[in-house]
Design goal:
The protein is built from 2 helices and 3 strands. By secondary structure, the chain is an alpha+beta fold. Strand 1 and strand 2 form a beta hairpin. The chain starts with 7 loop residues before the first helix and ends in a 6-residue tail after the last strand.
Length: about 80
């Protein structure tokens, strides 16, 4: 079960976002595009993602979803 491998504070944040009803609680960042709202990150938003630590929790500037970064993120 994946939930058991997620830090409790991150799981709590996910639950809070999910329950609040503001769209997706988490979204895959693929080719610089949020899969939650389909906005393509550019400019300072993209630079912020690029310069952040790999374990830093980032949010989509448009829909507020937690951005899940992988090799497909394009950053």
């Amino acid at each position: 079960m994946i939930a058991g491998t997620i830090a409790p504070d991150l799981a709590s944040l996910y639950e809070k976002l999910f329950v609040s009803g503001h769209g997706n609680a988490a979204a895959l960042l693929r080719q610089r595009t949020c899969s939650g709202c389909t906005i393509t990150l550019t400019g300072s938003d993209l630079e912020s993602v690029r310069s952040s630590a790999a374990d830093e929790v980032l949010f989509c500037p448009d829909c507020g979803a937690i951005l899940v970064r992988t090799e497909e993120s394009g950053i």
